[in-house]
Design goal:
heterotrimer; A mainly alpha; B mainly alpha; C alpha+beta; B: Ferritin; 11 helices; globular; disordered N terminus; C: three-stranded antiparallel beta sheet; PaaB (chain C); phenylacetyl-CoA 1,2-epoxidase activity (chain C)
Chain lengths: 333, 258, 95
């Protein structure tokens, strides 16, 4: 399960200004948000709130679906039957999470097909982390440990977001998610207890995934112009930098247990802050990958397009059969 | 029938259990290839569930085979470190996915067969095998139902889906001959009360499969003399590629722990 | 051929006997059998259920949130419907 901070500039909805909307409804909505109440699907909501939610939930859903691919790359090559079953169940869960989230987005009046078209046309974004390649089996473990770990940090606050269907989907997602991080760490522990070649494989994977994992929390708060509104609306609860710090603090001791080095010479405990300090994130790399120039951007999208197009005749067949059946039942009645 | 403890494991008994384990393994491996690529998200979930059932069955069966063999080989040694000629799955299991129709037809033909087989194996004199069968029977019921429904939707759907389903059936049907080919292993196992000779299941299998194919408006191809031989260890060209892929890691890192 | 989306079904799962079916999400399916099968695959992967209801989303009739005042507020002052409304002598207050 994977979100990166979903407030990347340039993706603000281009809706009409809120001023044309009913002021009384707006006031009631604001009051409910301020009181921490939950907004449900059929309740009145400002158009900008609805659009922001659709964008955020669908980006989140797309991330789950595209996120099946990097790890799915290793299902057929998993090194033991136990690991094969675990990985398949895990990647399947990501599909399930995508499904829950599409269902939550559909309550806002968009169809899953529309959202899918937006992904496949390149209009909608998904988490950039999946544009990095999975080069070895250790990547599967590291994705579970670091990428899912970062995602969980991002997601737990969303279980309390102001939009009911999204919050409930996230509760279900988070419940299933904790197995994902644990299985990753468990796989890495096993490898660290194996041969020297395996330990090198793990360290190499950590070296490649550490910084991209930190980028998953999105730009610094100061460079995150939409965060304020999302906070105000209760669809974002904790800031990017705060979550990132929490993740670093939680991960450093885990790395020690595992026996790997995190690839950051500036990483050290700061007694005054009570947190770990860490080095500077390469934001050029982040934006390059977001803007389509990662190793796998083209492949990931092409794979989704192919699955969707290859499946068109299947989806049509099921509809055609159901229509025939209905007609037959009608004729027989 | 005596419990297995008192039974000397015969080569035929071991071969029969390996055949069951390999069938589940290779079929599961193929189904898992769909994960992330299915025509619709719901079906992605369904196919992964079936693959997980099959991999689970393979683990139990190969572990059991390892114990019967008594050479200290566990499920992974058997799954990953044998040569192609030692795998005993029917060739049908290793056939490529090609398109959704091939996968569904294959899973339906195999699932309907497994359903009958597990039902009979519930009474096996090999009590471990009987316990695995009882668990697998429930899973096979769902597989046969889910894939059977899809066979009907594809066959009786659009012109294109009908054409694809028929093409898949035409390719796969001849491979079902192999399921029922008589052989000495089956004879010995059947005589020992361990499990049915697969040829005994032919009539019941046809009775289960043909009405669904008919409902799907598909034409059942005429039987031909074609005989595939995977369960005797001579496989199709597809098998080598499947194994190269599946075995690559454990073979590249001898002594590694996963 | 014009592309049509599969109908949406709302899924309700009874987690164990003795409890109500509870709404847990939705799936797309072209017929009732498929809806039940995929609901099983999507929503009961961790033994979350012993029974599933699938209802076509288009068949659900929902109350209008704007009608909340006339539907639900009138119950507000009927406090005598609640057991705590009645102050009874201590000896019998557990009734």
């Amino acid at each position: 399960m994977y979100t990166q901070a979903l407030d990347i500039p340039g993706q603000q909805p281009k809706g009409k200004p809120d001023a044309v909307e009913n002021a009384a409804y707006q006031a009631e909505f604001d009051a409910r948000i301020d009181a921490g109440a939950t907004i449900e699907a059929k309740d009145w909501m400002p158009e900008a709130y609805r659009k922001t939610l659709i964008r955020q939930i669908s980006q989140h859903a797309h991330s789950e679906i595209v996120g099946m691919l990097p790890e799915g790359n290793w299902i057929s090559r998993a090194p033991s039957l136990k690991r094969k079953a675990i990985l398949l169940a895990k990647v399947q869960d990501e599909g399930g999470h995508g499904l829950y989230l599409y269902a939550a987005a559909e309550t806002l009046g968009v169809s899953r097909d529309e959202l899918t078209e937006a992904l496949l046309s390149g209009k909608a974004k998904y988490s950039s982390i999946f544009n990095y390649p999975t080069l070895t089996w250790a990547d599967v473990g590291v994705i579970g440990w670091l990428v899912d770990g970062a995602a969980i940090m991002n997601q737990i606050p969303l279980c309390k977001c102001s939009y009911g269907p999204y919050a409930r989907a996230m509760v279900r997602v988070c419940k299933e998610e904790s197995f994902h991080q644990r299985q990753g760490f468990d796989a890495l522990l096993a490898m660290m207890g194996g041969t020297e070649a395996q330990r090198e494989m793990v360290q190499d994977a950590v070296n490649r995934w550490w910084w991209p994992s930190l980028m998953m929390f999105g730009p610094h708060d100061a460079d995150s112009p939409n965060s304020g509104q999302s906070m105000r609306w209760g669809i974002k609860r904790i800031s990017n930098d705060e979550l990132r710090q929490k993740f670093v603090d939680a991960t450093v001791p885990q790395a020690k247990v595992l026996g790997v080095t995190l690839p950051d010479p500036d990483l050290k405990w700061n007694e005054d802050r009570g947190h770990y300090d860490f080095g500077t994130i390469d934001w050029d790399e982040f934006w390059n990958v977001v803007n389509g120039h990662g190793q796998c951007n083209v492949d990931r999208l092409a794979t989704r397009v192919k699955a969707w197009e290859d499946g068109a005749w299947v989806r049509e067949a099921a509809i055609a059969h159901a229509e025939k059946q209905a007609a037959r039942e009608k004729a027989a009645a | 029938m005596g419990a297995q403890m008192t039974m000397q494991t015969t080569p035929e008994h071991l071969e029969y259990v390996l055949r069951l384990g390999d069938a589940a393994l290779i079929h599961g491996q193929r189904l898992s290839e769909w994960c992330g690529h299915a025509p619709v998200l719901e079906e992605d979930m369904a196919m992964a569930n079936m693959a997980l059932d099959l991999i689970g069955q393979a683990r139990l069966l190969l572990s059991h085979a390892g114990k019967l063999e008594g050479q200290g080989r566990d499920e992974d040694a058997l799954a990953f470190l044998r040569h192609e000629g030692e795998y005993r799955n029917p060739t049908l299991c290793e056939m490529p996915n090609t398109d959704f129709a091939h996968t569904i037809l294959k899973a339906f033909l195999l699932g309907s067969f497994s359903l009958l087989l597990w039902d009979r194996l519930g009474g096996s004199g090999d009590l471990e095998l009987a316990a695995i069968a009882a668990k697998s029977l429930k899973e096979a019921r769902y597989h046969a139902e889910h894939t059977g429904d899809w066979v009907i939707r594809l066959g009786d759907g659009t012109e294109e889906s009908h054409r694809r389903a028929q093409a898949a059936l035409d390719v796969l049907w001849p491979y079902t001959n192999e399921l029922f080919a008589p052989n000495a292993t089956d004879d010995a196992v059947s005589a020992a009360g361990i499990g049915p000779a697969w040829s005994e299941l032919a009539a019941d299998w046809e009775a289960a499969v043909l009405p669904v194919l008919q409902h799907a408006t598909l034409t059942v191809p005429a039987r031909t003399p074609f005989q595939s031989t995977g369960k005797f260890g001579r496989h199709s060209e597809y098998m080598g590629h499947l194994l190269a892929h599946m075995q690559h890691l454990p073979r590249s890192f001898p002594g590694a722990k996963w | 051929m014009e592309r049509k989306e599969w109908p949406l079904w709302e899924i309700f799962v009874r987690s164990r006997n003795g409890l109500d079916h509870k709404h847990c999400g939705s799936v797309h399916a072209t017929d009732a059998r498929m809806a039940l099968q995929v609901a099983r695959d999507v929503y009961t992967r961790r033994q979350e259920g012993v029974s599933i209801w699938a209802v076509k989303a288009s068949d659900i009739v929902a109350s209008d949130p704007d009608a909340k005042p006339e539907l639900f507020d009138p119950a507000e002052d009927k406090i005598y419907r609640h057991p705590t409304f009645y102050k009874l002598p201590d000896e019998v207050d557990h009734m």
